[in-house]
Amino acid sequence: MERKGQRPLLDRWGTLQAREARLAWMLTSPTALIVFGLIIFPVVFSVWISFHDVTLRNLNDVFHAPYVGWKNYRNVVNDFAFKFQGVHQWGAAVTSVVYTFVATALTVLLGLVAALLLNRPFRGRGATRAIFLFPYIAPIVSVAFVWRWILDPRPSGVLNDLLMRMGLIDLPKAYLATRGLALVLVIIFTAWRYFPFAMLMILARLQAVDRVMYEAAAVDGANAWHKFRHITLPELRYVLGAIFLLRLIWTFNKFDDIYLLTGGGFGTNVLPVLTYQFSFRALNFGKGAATAMILLAILSVFMLVYTRTVMRGSE
Amino acid sequence: MTSNRSNTKGSDRANLLDRLAQSITWPRFIFALILIFFLTSILFPFYWMVSSSFKDYAEIGSREAVYIPGAFRLDAYRELFDPNHPNFWNFGSNILNSLKVAVPTAIIAVILSTLGAYAIARLRFRGKGFLLNGILLVYLFPGVMLIIPLFAMIARMGSTLGFGVQDNLPILIVTYLAQTLPVALYMLANYFRTIPAEIEQAALIDGCSRFGVIWRVTLPLSVPALVSVAIYTFMIAWNEFLYALVFLNSSAMFTMPIKISMIFNDPTPRLHVVMAASTVMTVPVVILFLALQRFLTEGLTAGGVKG
């Protein structure tokens, strides 16, 4: 639009613009090179690997690996660790989806409660907000191992100790090694660790809500619940949706949390951990890549929704 | 005099209690309850980490949980750092490895993202939208999926050029850059947009080159943002687990997270040592965060959703 208006000066503008563009590309190229070279190319290469027989033997000569068609995918889909075999053996695909949705919902819910809490003025609010961010900024290894130690199967574990003192259990239990319970605990851990991210986003949005609306509602005799239901929630709708999708994608991709807490055992195996196990434990990179592609296929559904709604909305 | 003063103090206190009693209403009570629930569930694990690091082997495996260590014991720390200890872990070398990875990552990320973010915030060029969206999409790919082709790619390159994939810290730095640059770029570009373009234009008119403008005008105005990007990328590299797990093979080259996980998986339970190492790893991060809290939280929100 602007360019059309300046048509008489096109020649001079053209060179200036060209110079600016050249400079811009020069400035962005190192970043672009690293990011695209280490992410976009690997994504493409990953597709290639998933159709070839790549193991530790031919890793040094990977480009001559034999083509095997859909064999890797068939192996993954028929693997007992992957496929759904009834209520007691969910397999990694179903576990992944259930884990991701429940953990994300809980994360956003906790984030919302924490943000509403911190949106009220009280003494020590700044310090409290800083403390609330601790789980998110602390190294994953240390928090995961602290939680494992709290849930330790020995009587010296905190949860065992508390429940035994209260007389609720007689013998110590191995919580993270109990099917079902392990998944619940992993979900709680995920929400505990990532709610601060949701909290920050919601808090930023809450502080932008016009106070006048609350005052008007108060004049009309609205109580706290009405205000929350009819002012706060509608104002937050967009940001809640955005956080939900973003966290959904990130949780679906998460490897560290579950790997460190349970190693993917006891009904908590998810696709990222399975991908790691196939490629770096069984050293079958083709099968690992195929698992990753299935993960990506499910993920791309999330991504599509994300780009359709959030990225368009933020323009 | 003194009695008088204490008297007024006493009545003040009574007054305060009175006011306190009046001010406790149901909503406030529930508010306080939820706040306490959050604070305990957040702080207890951290307390448990630090306090367990002062316990000894007997307290770790006793018949009940030991909530306060019997004495201020440094056994676990000696095991980590004292070469004369029978179970010496040489954790100092792992701290050094983590620094060797995290510091260059932070410095290079700041330099590269400053250049890129300046172009994105200030210059008009074809392909900017594509670049931004591409970088944003990258943010959404799973690390575990990228690591297989990266591993194969670098192994292939290594066998041609004659370097090893494993135990190679520079390779780790490059992969961390790929993970941190998108966020760094977004944080900085958002910040640069808040600097009035007029200041830069004035410098340009005065005959400054573009690089001169970046160096003399933009950077001095962006010190808080640059520091927070540096800390942020440092923290990501410091905390990173998966890539280090795959790319590092010998315990002398391990970064802290991998070493801690190795100590955790030791056949004899060494939880006090794990907690000591975790404390050593967590404390600097928390201090850095607290010192720069305001900038960092702004950066965190700016990197995600606007408004």
- The CATH class of the largest domain in chain B is identified as Mainly Alpha
Overall outline of chain A: globular
Assembly status: heterodimer
Strand content of chain B is under 5%
Largest sheet of chain B: none
Please name the CATH architecture of the largest domain in chain A. Answer: Orthogonal Bundle
SSE ordering of chain A = HHHHHHHHHHHHHH
Number of helical regions of chain A? 14
What's the overall average pLDDT of chain B, rounded?
A: 82
Please provide a written account of the structure.
The complex is a heterodimer of chains A (315) and B (307). By secondary structure, chain A is mainly α. Chain A folds into 2 domains: 1-44, no CATH class; 81-313, MetI-like fold (Orthogonal Bundle). Helices cover 71% and strands 0% of the residues of chain A. Chain A contains 14 helices and no strands. The longest helix of chain A has 41 residues, at 10-50. The model of chain A is unreliable at 1-10 (pLDDT under 50). In chain B, helix 2 (26-52) crosses helix 14. The N and C termini of chain B lie far apart (57 Å). The longest helix of chain B is centred in the middle third of the chain and has 32 residues, at 91-122. Chain B has 15 helices and no strands. Chain B is flat, with a radius of gyration of 26 Å. Residues 1-6 and 303-307 of chain B have low confidence and may be disordered. Chain B has 307 residues and is mostly helical. Chain B has 2 domains: 2-81, no CATH class; 91-303, MetI-like (MetI-like fold, Orthogonal Bundle), CATH 1.10.3720.10. The chains are: A mainly alpha (315), B mainly alpha (307).
